[in-house]
Amino acid sequence: MIPPPFLGLEHLSTAVLLLDGGGLILYANPSAENLFEVSLNHICGHNLKQVFGADSPLVSAVEQILPGNTSFTEHELTLSTPSHALLSVSCTFTPVEAGTVRLILEFHQIDKQLKIAREERMLLQQQANQELVRNLAHEIKNPLGGLRGAAQLLELELPKPELKEYTQVIIKEADRLRSLMDRLLTPHRPPQYRMVNIHEVLERVRSLLLAEHSQGITIRRDYDTSLPDIYADQEQLIQVALNISRNAAQAMQGRGEITLRTRIARQVTLAKKRYRLALLIQIIDNGPGVPESIREKIFYPLVSGRDGGSGLGLTLAQSFVAQHHGSIECDSKPGRTCFTILLPVTETTTHS
Q1: What pLDDT does 309 receive?
Q2: What's the Rg (C-alpha) of the chain?
Q3: What pTM was estimated for this model as a whole?
Q4: Where are the domains of the chain?
Q5: How many other CB atoms are there within 10 angstroms of residue 351's CB atom?
C-alpha cells in the first residue's frame, strides 16, 4: 500500500522506490514494476540487497546516503534486475522524513540510442585497433627473421665461445618478439563453431587456474545451470575467461578470491542488434582493482598494469568476444573488479 504522503506516485512515468531507514522497500510505483520487470508484491518488504544483490552499486550508494541528509544523482548505474537482466539507469537519491519513508529513489533508463552510439564507437575503435595491430605485427615479423638469421651467422664466426652469450640474447629476444607478433595475429583466424556449454568452458578455466595457483587462490562458482548451450568457438571462449582470470590472479599476487558467475540476460542489444536472450558471464575478483590511469583503455593493445605484462590478454579477449557478436565490459574499484561478458543466444542455438 502506498504511504499517504505519496499518493500521486502511481501516475508518474518515472520509476520510483520508497525505502525505510534500513533500506527496506516500502513501495514501488507501476513504472518501477515495468522497469525492473517485477511486481510490487515480490519486492515490497524486502531489502535492496535481496532484490538487486549485495554487491549492487545501488546498495552501496544507499548505504552511503541513509546516514546523512544529502540528495544527489548518480548518472550511470548498471543494475542486475530481479530477472537477471542488466539495466543502465540514472538514479536520484532524495532523503525525506515522512512516516517510515526515509529515502526516495527515482530512476530514469539511460537513452538506448546513446548506449547504441557508444557501443558503435567502441566497435569502430576496436576494429581500428585490430587493423593497426595486424599491420604492425606483419611489419615487425619480417625484419625479426633477418635479425635472428644474422645473429646465428655471427655466432658461427665468433672466435671466443663466451661471446656467444650475446648472440643468444639476440636470438632469444627475436623469438620472444616473434611469439608476441603471432599472438597479435591469432584473433584473425575464423572461429571454429559448435555447440558449447559455458560451464564446461569455465570449469576448464577453473582447473587450469588451480593448477597454476594451488595455494592462495579460491575460486567460487555461482552458476545458473539452466543456461542453454551456445553456438561458439570453445577454445576462444576458454582463452577469454582464462586471460581475464589469469590477470586477476596475477593482480592479487596469487592470493585472493575469484568468482565465476553465470546468468541469463533478457532483451539485450549487442552491436545494434536486439536479442531475446543472452548469456551473462561475470569474472569477479577481490584484488586491488585496475589502476585508474589505465581503466579507460585496458582493452587497448600493449596497455598493461603489470610490470612485464604484454598488454595483449584483454585485447585478445575483446577480439574473441567481438567475433561472437558479444560485448565485454569492466567495472573496477579497490577490492572488487568485475568483467561482464554478454554472448547472444541465437535462434541457431535454441533450435539446435
Answers
A1: 53
A2: 25
A3: 0.56
A4: 4-110, 116-187, 191-350
A5: 6
Nearest to 265 by CA among 87, 139, 123: 87
- Let me know if domain 191-350 sits in CATH 3.40.50.970: no
Cα 171 from Cα 158, distance rounded (Å): 15
Name the phi and psi angles at 83, rounded to 5: -90, 10
Cα–Cα dist 284/245, whole Å: 9
Assigned C-alpha cell, 64: 552511503
Q: What are the phi and psi torsion angles at 30 (to 5°)?
A: -55, -35
The neighbour count for residue 200, using CB atoms within 10 Å, is 13
DSSP H or E segment with residue 321: helix 313-323
Phi, psi of 43 (to 5 degrees): -115, -20
d(C-alpha 296, C-alpha 299), whole Å: 8
In Å, how far are 148, 152, 163, 166, 169 from 160, measured between CA atoms?
Answer: 20, 15, 6, 11, 16
**Top-confidence residue, 141 or 16:** 16
DSSP state of 300: S
Angle CA(37)–CA(327)–CA(228) in degrees, nearest 5?
Answer: 60
Averaged pLDDT, 43-59: 87
Question: Do residues 305 and 291 make contact, with C-beta atoms less than 8 angstroms apart?
Answer: yes
For residues 267 and 270, give the distance between their C-alpha atoms in angstroms, rounded to a whole number: 10
Question: Which ranges constitute the DSSP H helices of the chain?
Answer: 30-36, 40-43, 48-52, 57-65, 112-157, 164-185, 198-212, 234-251, 313-323, 347-350
> Can you give the pLDDT at residue 66?
78
State the DSSP code for 255. -
The pLDDT of residue 106 is above 90: yes
Q: Do domains 4-110 and 191-350 have the same CATH topology?
A: no
Q: What is the mean pLDDT of residues 173-200?
A: 76
Q: Which residue has the cell 541465437?
A: 346
Look up residue 160 and give its DSSP letter: S
Side chain identity at 198, as an amino acid letter? Answer: I
**What are 57-104's pLDDT values in tens digits?**
888 888 888 777 778 888 778 888 777 677 888 889 998 888 888 899
Q: Which fold has domain 4-110?
A: Beta-Lactamase (3.30.450)
Q: Which three cell numbers stand for residue 158?
A: 665468433
Q: CA-CA distance, 180 to 73, in Å (whole number)?
A: 45
Is-contact 48 56, C-beta < 8 A?
Answer: yes
